[in-house]
C-alpha cells in the first residue's frame, strides 16, 4: 500500500497534483490512501479510494505520529509514503523512515530531505540537474523538471480546439483574493466591450462579491465556480491572465498564450526558465500596478496574439501532460533511477551571418523580448543612456509590439554579446538615422563594439545611402566617443539644422552631458 500525506490547507495545488498521481498509481494496481488536513469536497475526491483527515498537529514529529496512528488504526501495511507539504521537511521524513521502508518527497522549493526519492517539476534551465546538490545524499534518486509535472490526464490528450477570438480567461487557481483583479476586469469590460471574459473562481477564493455584482451589469462576463477541469477553457481562450502556480504547466501543455503574476512563494521563477516553456509574459507584482497600465498591456497582447501563439509553439521544453503517469511508474518500480528533464525541442534555427569565425549577427525576434530588457537594464548600460532609469517590464512589453526599430543581436557561439539597433526618422522633410547599442555580457570589449558598429554602418550605407546619421554620446563615455570618432562621426556644434533635429529625436539629451555628433550627409 502507498500513503500520500498532502497539504490541503494552503490552496489546492498540492492536493490536485497528488490526486492525479494517486489515480495513476491506482491504475497500475496499487492501493492508495491520502492523508489530508481538512475534509475535501466530494467533487475533488472523485475517483480516489480513501481520503482520511488527520488531527491537527503542532509539530512535525506530532504530525508524523498522527499519520502512523491512523495507519495502524486502519490496519494498513504501508510500503511507501509520499509527502507533499511545505511545512513537513527532513524531520518529519526521518521520523516516518523509521517506520516505513520508503519515503518519497514531492517538492518545488529545493529543501534538504531525508528521503529515498525526490520529485521536483520546477525548471531552472541547465541548473535543474543541480537543484538538490548537497541537499540529499548521493544514494537518493531524483526526478527533476517539467517532464514530471503531475497534471490531469486531460492534458495528455489536448485536442486541436479552435480558439475563440477576443476571449480572455482569468484564474487565481483554487483560491486567491479577487479584489484587485476585479478592478482590472471591470476596467477591461468598460474599455473593450467586444471582449468575452471567463473568470474561473476556485473553491477557496475570497473577495468575489465584486465579481458577482459585475456579472449582473456585463453580459459578456461569465463566472465559472469550482470547475472540474480548466483544460477546455485554456484551449478555447485567446489569452489567459492569472496566477502562475500549477497553471504554468497546464498553459504549456495547451500552448495557451498568457500574462501571469505571482501570489505565492513557489510561483517565483527565473524568466529564462519560463522562456524555455514558451511563457514570455510574467510580471510577478502585476497586481500592485495601476489597473490602467495592466489593461493597456492586456489589450496590446491581444492585438498581437498571433505572435504570442508562435512563441508558445516554439517552446524549447515540450509539456505532454504525462508527468503523473511517469512518476507513478517510477514509484511502482523496484529501484529508483534518477531522471532529469532535458530540452526536448531543438531551438528554432534563426538566420544569421558570421562576422568572424565564431561571432554572428541576426535579427532580433520576439523570443528576445526578455533578454533584450535584461541587457538594457544592466547598470553598465543604464548610466550611458539618455534615459538612465531602468525600463519597467510593462512599459517594455507594450513598447515591444509597437516599435519600428531594426534590431539585431551579436552572439558569440549562440550567447548574446550585445544588441544593436537603428531607426529611420523624418524631421522637417529630412531623413535621419539614429541608433544605439548596449551590452548583454560582461565579455563585451572594444573589438566587439567596433565589429558591431562597422557592420551596422556598412549595412545602413547600403540600404540608406543618402541619409545622415545623428547620435548623442555621454561625455563620460570615452569608450563610445572614441568608437564613433573612428567610425567617422564628427561634432555638429554650430549646425543649427542638425542640432534641432538631434534635440527633437533625443529630447532627454542635454548639451551639458552629451556630445552631439553626425556621420555623412549627401545633402550638404
Automatic annotation (TrEMBL):
Residue stretches making up the Glycosyl transferase family 28 C-terminal domain: 194-315
Coiled-coil zones: none
InterPro entries assigned to the protein according to its UniProt record, in alphabetical order: Acyl_CoA_acyltransferase, Glyco_trans_28_C
Record Pfam families: Glyco_tran_28_C
Gene3D superfamilies per record: 3.40.50.11190, Glycogen Phosphorylase B
A GO MF term: hexosyltransferase activity
Annotated protein name in UniProt: Pseudaminic acid biosynthesis protein PseG
Organism encoding this protein: Pseudoalteromonas arctica
Upper taxonomic lineage: Bacteria, Pseudomonadati, Pseudomonadota, Gammaproteobacteria, Alteromonadales
Amino acid at each position: 500500500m502507498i500513503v500520500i500525506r498532502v497539504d490541503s490547507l494552503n490552496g489546492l495545488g498540492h492536493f490536485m497534483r497528488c490526486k492525479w498521481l494517486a489515480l495513476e498509481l491506482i491504475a497500475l494496481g496499487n492501493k492508495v490512501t491520502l492523508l489530508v488536513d481538512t475534509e475535501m469536497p466530494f467533487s475533488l475526491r472523485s475517483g480516489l479510494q480513501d481520503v482520511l483527515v488527520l488531527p491537527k498537529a503542532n509539530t512535525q514529529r506530532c504530525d508524523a505520529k498522527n499519520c502512523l496512528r491512523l495507519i495502524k488504526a486502519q490496519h494498513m501495511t504501508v510500503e511507501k509514503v509520499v509527502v507533499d507539504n511545505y511545512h513537513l521537511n527532513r524531520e518529519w521524513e526521518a521520523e516516518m523512515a523509521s517506520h516505513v521502508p520508503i519515503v518519497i518527497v514531492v517538492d518545488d522549493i529545493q529543501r534538504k530531505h531525508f528521503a529515498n526519492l525526490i520529485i521536483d517539476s520546477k525548471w531552472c534551465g541547465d541548473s535543474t540537474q543541480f537543484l538538490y546538490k548537497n541537499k540529499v545524499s548521493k544514494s537518493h534518486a531524483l526526478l527533476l523538471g517539467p517532464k514530471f509535472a503531475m497534471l490531469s490526464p486531460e492534458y495528455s490528450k489536448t485536442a486541436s480546439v479552435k480558439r475563440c477570438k477576443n476571449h480572455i480567461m482569468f484564474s487565481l487557481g483554487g483560491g486567491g483574493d479577487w479584489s484587485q483583479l476585479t478592478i482590472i476586469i471591470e476596467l477591461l469590460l468598460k474599455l473593450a466591450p467586444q471582449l468575452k471574459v471567463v473568470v474561473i473562481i476556485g473553491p477557496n477564493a475570497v473577495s468575489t462579491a465584486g465579481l458577482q455584482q459585475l456579472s449582473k451589469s456585463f453580459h459578456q462576463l461569465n463566472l465559472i465556480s469550482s470547475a472540474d477541469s480548466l483544460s477546455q477553457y485554456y484551449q478555447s481562450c485567446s489569452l489567459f491572465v492569472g496566477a502562475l502556480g500549477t497553471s504554468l504547466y497546464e498553459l504549456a501543455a495547451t500552448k495557451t498564450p498568457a500574462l501571469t503574476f505571482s501570489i505565492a512563494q513557489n510561483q517565483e521563477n527565473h524568466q529564462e526558465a519560463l522562456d524555455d516553456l514558451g511563457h514570455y509574459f510574467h510580471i510577478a507584482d502585476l497586481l500592485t500596478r495601476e489597473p490602467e497600465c495592466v489593461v493597456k498591456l492586456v489589450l496590446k497582447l491581444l492585438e498581437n496574439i498571433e505572435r504570442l501563439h508562435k512563441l508558445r509553439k516554439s517552446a524549447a521544453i515540450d509539456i505532454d501532460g504525462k508527468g503523473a503517469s511517469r512518476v507513478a511508474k517510477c514509484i511502482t518500480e523496484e529501484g529508483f533511477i534518477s531522471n532529469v528533464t532535458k530540452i526536448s525541442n531543438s531551438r528554432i534555427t534563426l538566420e544569421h551571418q558570421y562576422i568572424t569565425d565564431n561571432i554572428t549577427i541576426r535579427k532580433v525576434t520576439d523570443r528576445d523580448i526578455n533578454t533584450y530588457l535584461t541587457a538594457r537594464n544592466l547598470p553598465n548600460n543604464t548610466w550611458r543612456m539618455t534615459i538612465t532609469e531602468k525600463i519597467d517590464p510593462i512599459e517594455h512589453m507594450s513598447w515591444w509590439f509597437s516599435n519600428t526599430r531594426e534590431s539585431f543581436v551579436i552572439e558569440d557561439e549562440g550567447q548574446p554579446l550585445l544588441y544593436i539597433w537603428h531607426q529611420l526618422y523624418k524631421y522637417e522633410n529630412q531623413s535621419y538615422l539614429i541608433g544605439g547599442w548596449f551590452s548583454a555580457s560582461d565579455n563585451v570589449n572594444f573589438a566587439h563594439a567596433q565589429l558591431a558598429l562597422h557592420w551596422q554602418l556598412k549595412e545602413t550605407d547600403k540600404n540608406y545611402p543618402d541619409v545622415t546619421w545623428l547620435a548623442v554620446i555621454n561625455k563620460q563615455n570615452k569608450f563610445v566617443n572614441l568608437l564613433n570618432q573612428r567610425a567617422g562621426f564628427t561634432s555638429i556644434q554650430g549646425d543649427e539644422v542638425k542640432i534641432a533635429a538631434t534635440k527633437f529625436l533625443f529630447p532627454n539629451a542635454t548639451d551639458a552631458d552629451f556630445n552631439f555628433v553626425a556621420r555623412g550627409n549627401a545633402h550638404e
